[in-house]
Design a protein that fits this description.
Blueprint lengths: L40 H23 L8 H30 L5 H19 L2 H7 L4 H7 L3 H4 L2 H8 L8 H9 L5 H14 L2 E3 L2 E3 L1 H6 L6 H17 L1 H22 L6 H6 L4 H13 L5 H11 L5 E2 L17 H15 L1 H13 L2 E2 L11 E3 L8 E3 L6 H20 L11 H4 L1 H17 L3 H18 L1 H17 L6 H16 L3 E2 L12 H5 L5 H22 L3 H13 L6 H5 L9 H20 L20
Parallel strand pairs: 3-7, 4-6
Antiparallel strand pairs: 1-2, 5-6
């Protein structure tokens, strides 16, 4: 499958344990994809795809129009073969997707990606019947199958497949949609990627890539931030017609598809895929919206004061704080920090993370043509994940490494569940990544002796949390409003910009001055194109982790920290086999309870309280405040 796709000595609740150290040179690593496909890749891919095509054709001959007549044992054998062939296709899809992410400006890489994608689509067409026939199997037969242990093992994925029964179209239509996929949404996503990779931004006599220009928004030079912001806005405006057309087309395709299938809203299919109830998502969204004045509005007013301004310019949103010393952390130092924090919580986390450094599973070197973001691609369980990031020697890069390493460790631990059940729903996919960031943050805070540096660490953490929670729910609100408006007709770039500016003003608040260049910043957000309505998963994960970490602190105070850590490892190992309620039950948490979200948000609020009071910010995580009841408004 394609790659899947930011001191004073104080009691540290984490018991320190010796952790492994990275054996990595100072040179930033570039991954090797040989574990997926050995060199020469094209030759191996061609041979592997030919074999997979034969296997898929034979599978179709053996099982098409016969699935409902199979006994439990026969179905178990059929599904095992279906998973095996799917994983083989996933191997080659992962390779070309990852290869392309570092060569977005390379026509040959793009050509190979498209060619292999089309071949994979053709091969998998022979297996489309399986899902369609599975959903026509009567409940009585399906229930009987589940009594067989080999079928029961697959119950989570089979039940999830059958959850789409009410939305399944006729076999003929489903097969047509499958065949057209590579020339539909997939092609428009590719156009977005390649357009973004080719953009160049003028900056003080230089021409920069997207990664390079956005890095200047983190500069401690206010004029540099202003100039970078202006350059980004101008270039995005020049290309807004293209971005707007792509976004309009993808939104219309999604609306038509989901209307024909009978989904009640454009977000319903995402929630179904995430195995999360609509009311749980809305409880999260409503809680975050209601928190704006207590969180983002209040924090950015503080930041404006620290920077000596009545209002911040929008390009100051992520500006370094005036009391924050500029700290450069080279690759080796960053790796040691992450491994030490992971190992202090549980040695197994560090042991798995070490494999990424030793095995060449990370690509951290920025370069032209490379994806400007960061991700951990799960690939396939019989291989291993790969992490992509752009390391720039800053504290934010260490936190990005901690985040993506969390994903990677999660994916390694869950691999035992097999190809179909290793991946978690998006709502839980951010758990390990955000928890990893929290471990590193707490480790850095505990070891920092300078009060100003501790204050800066805390403020930076608050900004990260606001970016993960408030900003991502703002992205969700932007998507919702855009998709609702798109039902009435195509939107111009300026109309899309109107929605963007309205949502940003409400979420970020009156502490900012917004300029016209910012109207076009919606254009570069890849999630809007690749994964509509993905973004709430980040807020879901951050609030969940806040509540989870607070539960850990409570356990550690009672001398049960290691027992909690062991349960956490079990949560990661479960992969996608359990619903979020079942996974959180051992920790005494329930995402269906509105108080759950308020508790998660209360941790952010407690951090802002510390900053607002000018306190020393000691024992921040060990003494979280109770969630405040919502005020009547």
């Amino acid at each position: 499958m394609p790659a899947k796709t930011r001191a004073a000595k104080t009691k540290n609740p984490v018991k320190t344990r010796k952790s492994a150290q990275p054996r990595q040179s100072a040179t930033l690593p570039v991954w090797s994809l040989d574990d997926l496909v050995p060199s020469p890749a094209q030759k191996h891919i061609a041979k592997g795809l030919a074999a997979a095509a034969r296997d898929a054709a034979a599978f179709r001959v053996k099982y098409e129009n016969k699935l409902g007549r199979l006994g439990a044992e026969g179905f178990a054998a059929a599904f095992a073969l279906y998973e095996k062939i799917s994983e083989t296709l996933g191997r080659y899809g992962s390779y070309v997707s990852l290869d392309r992410q570092t060569k977005l400006d390379d026509a040959a890489a793009g050509q190979m990606y498209q060619s292999v994608s089309e071949t994979l689509n053709d091969i998998s067409a022979d297996m489309v019947f399986f899902r369609l026939e599975l959903n026509r199997v009567p409940d009585a037969v399906f229930t009987k199958w589940l009594k067989h242990p080999e079928v029961a093992r697959y119950k989570p994925v089979l039940s999830q497949m059958r959850a789409y029964r009410p939305y399944q179209l006729s076999d003929e239509v489903e097969k047509i949609l499958h065949d057209r996929d590579v020339t539909g949404a997939g092609a428009w996503m590719r156009m977005f990627d390649e357009t973004s990779a080719k953009l160049r931004f003028p900056f003080r006599g230089k021409t920069l890539t997207e990664t390079e220009i956005f890095h200047h928004l983190l500069s401690d030079d206010a004029a540099a931030r202003r100039d970078a912001h202006a350059s980004i806005g101008r270039v995005l405006k020049e290309n807004a017609g293209t971005y707007g057309f792509i976004l309009n087309t993808l939104a219309k395709e999604k609306e038509v598809d989901e209307r024909q299938r009978g989904f009640k809203s454009v977000m319903a299919s995402r929630n179904l895929d995430n195995q999360v109830e609509d009311d749980v998502v809305m409880a999260l969204v409503d809680s975050v919206r209601a928190s704006h004045k207590r969180l983002s509005h209040r924090y950015y007013k503080l930041k404006a004061g620290w920077m000596g301004k009545k209002q911040l310019d929008i390009w100051d949103r992520n500006a370094p704080l005036p009391f924050a010393a500029k700290r450069r952390l080279g690759w080796d130092a960053g790796c040691k920090i992450v491994l030490a924090a992971y190992g202090a919580f549980h040695p197994q986390l560090a042991a798995v993370a070490q494999k990424f450094f030793d095995g060449g599973w990370i690509d951290a070197r920025p370069r032209a043509g490379k994806d400007s973001g960061a991700f951990s691609a799960s690939t396939i369980p019989s291989a291993h994940p790969y992490i992509l990031m752009n390391y720039k020697n800053g504290l934010e890069d260490v936190m990005t490494l901690a985040h993506e390493m969390g994903h990677g460790v999660h994916q390694v631990l869950a691999a035992q569940q097999g190809y179909f059940m290793a991946d978690t729903p998006l709502t839980l996919a951010e758990t390990a990544s955000v928890f990893g960031e929290m471990l590193v943050f707490q480790s850095l805070l505990a070891s920092e002796t300078d009060p100003a540096a501790r204050r800066a660490l805390l403020a930076r953490k608050v900004e990260d949390m606001l970016n993960t929670v408030v900003r991502q729910i703002a992205f969700h609100d932007f998507e919702w409003q855009f998709h609702q408006a798109r039902k009435k007709g195509e939107l111009t770039p300026d109309e899309i910009g109107d929605i963007w500016m309205d949502v940003m003003r409400k979420s970020l608040g009156p502490a900012f001055k917004y300029d016209e260049n910012y109207r076009y910043f919606w254009a570069y957000i890849s999630h809007f194109y690749h994964s509509p309505f993905y973004v709430y998963a980040y807020a879901f994960g951050d609030c969940l982790v806040n509540a989870l970490y607070m539960a850990y602190v409570d356990s550690d105070k009672k001398g049960q920290g290691r027992a909690f850590a062991d349960k956490y490892i079990a949560l990661l190992e479960a992969g996608g086999t359990l619903h979020h309620r079942a996974l959180l039950k051992p920790f005494g948490l329930d995402a269906g309870d509105p108080a759950f979200w308020r508790r998660g948000l209360s941790l952010i609020e407690s951090f802002i309280d510390q900053l607002e009071s000018g306190g020393k910010a000691d024992n921040l995580a060990t003494q979280p405040r109770k969630a405040r009841p919502r005020k009547k408004r």
